[in-house]
Amino acid sequence: MIPSFGASFSALLLVFGMASTAFADPCARLYSQILLVGERPPKLTDAQYRAYLDGMRRDLEGFKSPDFGLYLGIDDPAYVPQANSVYAPSNLFRSATSGKEHPANYELALLDHEIGHALYETNFPHRGLGRDALAQRIHVTERKVLAIEAELNEVLRASVPDSMKLSSILELQRRGAEPFRELQALRKAEWLTDGLRELFSDLVPALRQGDPQVIEKSSRAYAWLARVHQSNPGIRTEYRSRGFNRDWDADSLRKLLNPNEKNPAKPAGDPHVYFAPIRRALWQALEPAFNSPDRGRVLSRLYKVITDYERELFPDVASYSRQDIDIGRVNLELLKRVQAEFKNLG
Ligand SMILES: [Zn+2]
To answer: How far does residue 114's CA lie from ligand 1's centre (Å)?
Structure first.
């Protein structure tokens, strides 16, 4: 999960507002520092967290270190690019029946997922493109659409006969058509590029724990804890779409991939669902490689395949307004590239 700016800001407030216990670390590895900011003791000790993160470096050959600040004890996991900070829970999951603490696997899966986001953003090789460039373009286009909407409201409110308003209304509709179309295309590009990030970030814990279901199980447990099931029927689709061992029947696939499908269980534009159809096949291509002697470079090679493909889909800023991207085709093309990259490993 990468939160919006509003969420980032509140997360920062939370960090600075809470009593913190510093585990200062002078030597930058994967992280610049680890801070425990939650009130409950973490399931792992400081030394165990350090050993865990240092061990992770062995799976990250080819990446430059994100050098993030890690804040533990935050139950709402996030990576905040503006602050290069990872927030992760450290004592969240326990048995719903006995209340006993689960082992730390789920918390670590969420931590690994956020580290995946940190790796993606801090290693992104295409200057002037990517998440920030797209967000900036969305911001500018939203302003244009809002300005035209404001003008339109002014015309509608004006105390002149309706017949005199018609030409102004038509003119504003004409001027608004292109920015509105552009905004829809940009949002689709945002979901798609976020989808690539979520896919990569979900593969980090799945491969490291050797469990294709771990991120699905963690997000399901997380959704139950947050009690979002009752209010949001799309949540079930979201966590089911994150498993790497599911077969999707043709009808579910069609619904999932069709942006116009009226499916109340589909969270609109949720980036986690975009690459659900190929997750099982990706796992089959990657798992043998991750268990081979070449394990250390698997994630960086996968990252290169994904970011090269992102660059091909969006070679420049103008291409973020493209209309012709078909999510089904993008799924199959990405799968083909990953399979080609890893066919000789394992
Ligand atoms: Zn995420």
So the answer is: 6
